[in-house]
Amino acid sequence: MKIYFIGIGGIGMSALARYYKTQKHIISGSDLSRSEIINDLIEEGFAVKIGKHNGQNITKDIDLVVYSAAILDKNPELKRARELGIVVKRYSTVLGELTNKYYSICVAGAHGKSTTTAMLSLVLIRAGLDPTVIIGTKLKEFGNSNFRNGRRKISANFKKPILILEADEWSGSFLNYASDIAIITNIEKEHLDYYKKFKNVVNAFKVFSSHVKKGGMLILNKDSKGVLKMVESLSANDEVKRFFYHLDEKDNKEIVKFLNIPGRHNRSNALAVITAATVLGIKKELIFEAIASYQGSWRRFEVSEKSIKDKKITIINDYAHHPTEIIATIQAVKEKYHKQKIHVLFQPHQRQRMFYLFKSFISAFDGTDNLMIIDIYEVEGREKNNIEIGSKELVVAINERWNKKGLGLNVAKYLEGKLSEIAQLVLESAKDNEILIIMGAGDIWEINKYF
Q: Which H or E run includes 291?
């Protein structure tokens, strides 16, 4: 079968394309511009059209067109596929079909999905359960891929092979998934460009929870107020078992002994994995060994040391783009590096997120020694042009807050220009033996090539 992916460079779309390639299908696709993921796909032999989407890319011999949630109905490739009568399916619909074919473990939550999915995958691999994994980041353990192909037709003690899936809530994608085990790490105000109100976010997670299969399990973070709010309205269901986890000080001290990545939020993610693996009957010793082997994911607290112009700088690349994630990352850096000076270079992600969470962003950077913010990374197909709040306004608001709180020595700066130019400004700020956090979910990580 020939399958064409519109937006193949997306982190989820590329993983799904890799899945279908292992199933012996012929895969091709398109994306607007080159990226690290696109380059990886091309090296792996995928045929990728780069540039403005063109209906001529869609030919009659294509059997299925898969498109990402960011692709609009007016997209010329999508329109052409429909004109030709080709079957078209949204990414989340295709994944939903897969969850019914597998014993599916779906990891959802506003934050921590990738880390939790990664650690749980390593645990099940070590336990010999050989899962197929689709994850929203790249793992060293998967050969720097976001996909792992499980090779057993039937896993031991299960009626089906196992699929571990990172379940994204944006645009209601995860409502298509049927879980044998559903993990919810937390529920917060996120993706309000789609949900508008927090109660709609909570309700979406409620519906996701209701899609757990008969005899399945629901694993919930008791420390998340949003999760508890959702649980209040969940109907009783004796066919689904609920397990709650809570990171108390005993667990916190125990997990910090073997977890290699810092931060209380990551210890909470580890506890979610321990809870899930325990109810699956995996021995604690094996669980701890697998989690201890986890070295982190692509753009999740990714640490490197750089010697630049007689200066040794520790650079931390992190995907944090929501206020809660920013706070957690900064706290984790302070926990790991203690008294070293912290510089933060932040790229906001999506103008509507800035609009809905502006007040939370203002206080998210407290504790940094030097804050630099560049222009917002605008997501194709998800932006509204009538929103005027941007990076300049955020910098002004942060400085006003810091001045009122007597933090006048801390000054947030707005930086503009090409990444190569911004890199030079950053290097002028950072001194020897200091920390630079490069933070954001857009293309900010590409600045590393200029250091």
A: helix 284-292
